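Fold it.
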Amino acid sequence: SVTIEGRPVHLRAWRYMVEGCPGNDYALPIPVYLLDADLGENAEPDRHLTDELYGGDPRHRFTQEAILGLGGVALLNALGYNAIHTYHLNEGHSGLLALALLEDQLNGSTPNVIADHDIAAVRRRCVFTVHTPVPAGHDIFPHDLVKQVLGDERASLLEACGGFDNGSFDMTSFVMSFARSANGVSMRHGQVSRDMFPGRRVIAITNGVHAGAWIAEPVAGLLDKYASGWRGDTRFLRFAMGIPPGEIQQAHAEAKRQLFARIAELRDVKLDPNALTIGFARRAAGYKRGDLIFSDLGRLRRIVERAGPVQIVYSGKAHPRDVSGKQIIQEIHAAARDLEGVMKVIYLENYGMDLARYLVSGVDLWLNNPQKPLEASGTSGMKAAMNGVPSLSVLDGWWIEGHVEGATGWAIGDENPEGEDAEIASLYDKLEYAIMPMFYKQPLAYAAVMRHCIALNGEFFSAQRMMNQYYRDVYQAPAP
């Protein structure tokens, strides 16, 4: 149980065993524990505290974070995990874990001033990854709310260790002060995070994705032939450079056929397998600008007339309270109506991992155009690259590192802020003068780009490389 507003909130845990990749003898099952407050011994309102993520008001959110941080430590202790070397906190959601560890270190005492050696003892056990450059993604709670939820004693302990600033509790700053290491999730995001939190040491470990989970079977079979061993060691993906372009075309055509069959099931829409198909699938948020390609419908119509047919497949949910995200979805549907008879624009509902697997492997081009520098990393383009699908993307997040113009995809604009009008012009120019002529008139050259995507970006932007980097630079690195 966790004490919330002076009363015990009882928790149970569900265990999910994450199985390793088939054929990889080194991949042991990993337990993931999910906390659940829906128990008969809890008051009715408390039973719903773990129903959904990001729901409710600040009090509800802070209560959830208390359950995750304080309850998470209590659960691990109850299960006998008493010799944990490193607690890895992702974002501030579990930040009160550091408070629980501090309480253990102090053996229940609540001094007015926390000794440096006690803070250092907690810091040695915690590392922190920050995931968002958007200020709204960093929780700040008023003092009275913290005191209401945690009680006087714990609020006083947070006060003693400098957790409050001008009457507010900044969860991210609190976690950073109790972490021996902090990192962003791309090279650019590391720099942005250092600017957001001056005086803090923030390194960069670029995200990666799990090849076995995201590479579609037609492409996987091709890799088994030319890059045998990739399922257990993604460094073998580099051997994709030896795949004949014609065989990449065949594998991709099958992945595209499977996507279109899935779309036909979901929407009863038949797409053209020979048309350039653009994919855009991610959380619908205003800064991701999902409707940017529709900024000039006249230009888009002329591109289709001059360069060939285009069809676009969208998917992605908006946060329930994200008005701008919902507006983006409405704008996309409006554009689809305006372009009827010129190009097909499909928006697929209920976006999830299953649908994402079809999309990242079956489209011909992956589009990403966030407002710079608000893309911390982005992983959908990495998943597409592993399937040989090149990106047309703004140079932000991971794409700064993965972009090789004309080899792994194409850039929208350059790295510097240049205004939305310039980015729109660049997007259209790349489509009309670089991408579509290659796709329609030089298909083997386009297949060679697909080959580079797998060999260069698929190999590097993998979960294997990411985890090796975390192990070396974070988990095993001594505190600075």
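The chain has 18 helices and 17 strands.
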